[in-house]
Fold this protein.
Amino acid sequence: MPPRTPHRLPAEPPPNVMEALRKRLPGRDLPAFGTVFALRSAAQQVDNAVTGWMADSAGTPARFQILGMLWASGAGGVPHKEIVQALQVTRATVSGLMAALERDGLVKSAEDRHDRRNLIATLTARGRAIFERAIDTNIVSLRAAFATLSADDVETLTSLLQRLRQGFVAVRDNPSGQR
């Protein structure tokens, strides 16, 4: 199977569109519009890069997240419903991911002793080794990607992205903008 061609979003609208927008959008609206384009493009590049890194280690970012949760839990394991909540996906999605991880010998799931309706996932020795190798392999790429940013830059960027995310959530939850 040939490698997947990564998605490429433009960092900004075409020049003729930008010129028309300059005439139409007042004040802060044009820079905000441009920022959304730049952010979407950057997010797509990050997603493409991380997906590529994970392909050679944990498989996918979602699998890495699940393995990480199980790795951090130690021997205690994690209920499937907590994985659903953490990944913010459906139970069916987690069921599919868990079935594949179990098939690959990376995790095991068993009924909860206290409530047989719940499944508890634990990491196998092979899963632990894969996850730890994924950390070691991917940290090199992550360091290179962040090499041009200082620790303060990273902190500022993280804070700004969190605030921006909250703004988009607020608009989603209240599209009319009325308080």
User: Anything to note?
Assistant: Strands lie at 78-79, 107-111, 119-123. The chain has a mean pLDDT of 89.
